[in-house]
Amino acid sequence: MPANQPPLPKYSLPRYADPTPGAPAHRRLPREEEADLALKNTKFAPGTRQTLIALFLLTIVAVPTIQLAGEFRAAGAITRLPMISIFKSLPWLPHSKDLKRVERTLENESLVSQWLLPRTQYLLTVLLGAGNEQVYLGDDHWLFYRADVDHVIGPPFLDPVRMKHRLQASRVQPDPIQAIVDFCNQLAARGIDLVVLPVSVKPSVEGEMLAVSNANRAQAGGDLPNPSFNEFKARLERKKVRVFDPAPFLMERGRNGPLYLETDTHWRPETMEFVAQRLADFLQLPATAGSTLPSIIEKEIVARGDIAAMLKLSKADKFFPPEKVTIRQVLAGNALWRPSKEADVLLLGDSFSNIFSFEAMDWGESAGLVEHLSVALRRPIDCILRNSDASFATREILSNELGRGRDRLAGKKLVIWEFAARELSFGDWKLLDMKVGQAKPSHFFSPKTGEEVVVTGTVENISPVPRPGTVPYKDHIVALHLIDIADPARAAGEELQAVVYLWSMRNNVHTPAARLRPGDRVKIRLRPWADVSAQYEKFNRTEVDDPALQLEEPVWGELIK
């Protein structure tokens, strides 16, 4: 909590005694019984009951009334109201999952919550120093992503009981060692080496900025990994998996200044460059014959941190102003550096690789981990980068590409797998097949290269869309399975379908695609995914939960009203 903010008030709750005759003195009643006893023993002044009931009913009626009035004003007709279309999309006997989806949608689109949330957040953050469900406030205006903190201070991620609970509760593969060793063995069968790069999350190396007092800050100084992290490294090394852990180097460098951005989840550009150089020293690869050293130009960047955006403050810049950094762009001749698919080194990375490389993240371009590792190694590098879900997302892209008969691993000698350490606690470590498939004729629709086609179709299935402000990425791409496609250029009666990617969130605001539901009939403009993949591949994206659909060639779509 910033030093100039008042401490949180402390409250004491009354403890009710057990009225049961002969009951043990130490026995505590369940909360429901305590509440029931409290109500039975509460005396109301005349008219108080009626007033409270009236206020309660008024509150219940006011919220949907305001929502309906606002939607009717925007839509102009009852039949076009978003709330009506949401409930129409439900099956006759909705499943609890459908009802939860509707609940989330109504919560996201509530006019009352949109008005109330920034004001409530101001009270919690500025006056009480409490952050929100995704953000912890540190000292001197530092912000921390809750998932990062929970990974550091949480239970050991390799604990068998915890992994069993994650498997049963979340239906994920919770064991990172199993997934990494399996991936390593599949690569080794093709003569390809693997190096794992788990990037320390912010509270692991800047934990002292979470401490309130100077004494606690001194104790928090130093590397703070999850309790299972050392065991994780030791077990991988016993399995002959090479691990490059940058934490010891970061702690040494941290004595000279901050390593991470104050209001963002990611490292500073000079920290990233430092890790790239240490990784190059670790790899000890010879420079490519005839390679020339790229030129580097410095560029000043001013941007707002992704954690500050998650606070949803209407005047966030006033309390958490944009940060200024200097990036070093890598140029190949007069053009920005670009990866090479012919390179014998492939890097799989997440937003820690993207942060200064992917312009859409607002921190510059062509100045990230891949670019500076290429400079340090003096050789070209191929890369597959995707924000979020680093436990499986980049491997899944690689697996799908191989499954379609495109051998992205041809000629590769080394794969570097970079991921944020929080994935060890919360990621889905799927076991994915890296076999090269054969290209097969498909009944899935795809325009020709450079072509745009307008079609109509029915939404069969759609991938999950995150709620704005709950993830450290302001943009998101959704995948949907489109069937019954009507294309004027095709023969009548020919059944067509497609896997379509669309924008579902831009700058932390849902797009119309985020509101699509199975059964919706849509008009959509389609383009080949190959035409736009270089531009959109790095964005946070969710896939339709069907392995067969993931092997189909997707298309890029834009809804037409």
Question: TL;DR?
Answer:
By secondary structure, this protein is α/β, with parallel strands linked by helices.
Q: How is this fold's topology laid out?
A:
Elements: H1 31-40, H2 48-75, H3 82-88, H4 96-109, H5 111-127, E1 135-137, E2 143-145, H6 146-153, H7 160-170, H8 176-188, E3 193-199, H9 202-205, H10 214-220, H11 229-238, E4 242-243, H12 247-253, H13 269-283, E5 295-303, H14 306-310, H15 316-319, E6 323-332, E7 335-336, E8 345-349, H16 351-354, H17 369-377, E9 382-385, H18 393-403, E10 414-420, H19 423-426, E11 453-462, E12 476-486, E13 498-506, E14 509-510, E15 521-528, H20 529-536, H21 547-550, E16 555-559
Parallel strand pairs: 3-4, 3-10, 8-9, 8-10, 13-16
Antiparallel strand pairs: 1-2, 5-6, 6-7, 11-12, 11-15, 12-13, 13-14, 15-16
Inertia-based shape: globular
Q: Determine the number of helices (DSSP H or I, runs of at least 4 residues).
A: 21
Estimate what percentage of residues fall within beta strands: 15-25%
Total beta strand runs: 16
Alpha-carbon distance between the two ends: 47 Å
The Rg value, from CA coordinates, equals: 27 Å
| Class derived from helix and strand content | alpha/beta
How would you state the average pLDDT, rounded? 83
Give the spatial strand order of the biggest sheet.
4-3-10-8-9
Percent of residues in helices: 25-40%
How would you explain this protein's 3D organization?
- With 561 residues, the protein is of the alpha/beta class.
- The chain has 3 domains: 1-130, no CATH class; 136-285 and 295-426, no CATH class; 453-559, OB fold (Dihydrolipoamide Acetyltransferase, E2P), CATH 2.40.50.
- Helices cover 36% and strands 17% of the residues.
- The chain is built from 21 helices and 16 strands.
- Strands 4-3-10-8-9 form a 5-stranded parallel beta sheet. A 5-stranded mixed β-barrel has the order 11-12-13-16-15. It has a 3-stranded antiparallel beta sheet with strand order 5-6-7, covered by helices on one side.
- A hairpin with a 2-residue loop joins strand 6 (323-332) and strand 7.
- It is globular, with a radius of gyration of 27 Å.
- Residues 1-27 and 213-218 have low confidence and may be disordered.
